[in-house]
Write a structure and sequence with these properties.
Jelly Rolls; 7-stranded antiparallel beta sheet; 7 strands; globular
Length: 93
Amino acid sequence: MKGPVRTVLAHSPELMVVRFAFRAGDQGALHSHPHVQSTYVQSGRYRFTVNGREFQVGPGDAFVIPSNAEHGCTCLEEGELIDSFTPCRDDFL
């Protein structure tokens, strides 16, 4: 299997929580969506790009991606991200 593995942990019309399991080298391609996204780094290291700004995050870090912001990431060390979306991402169901 190639790329991160997505698991929906919980959802309602207003909120969705999703776990993404990454291996080193996996990428989340640049994309945007109307949902506000909060990302928590459960484990691993990642390089993120949000609206052209690059930064690295590791275990315990968290940040918010605004609605319609172009974003993506590269996994530097295997791990998991916990993402919350508001409203729910129906395309993940």
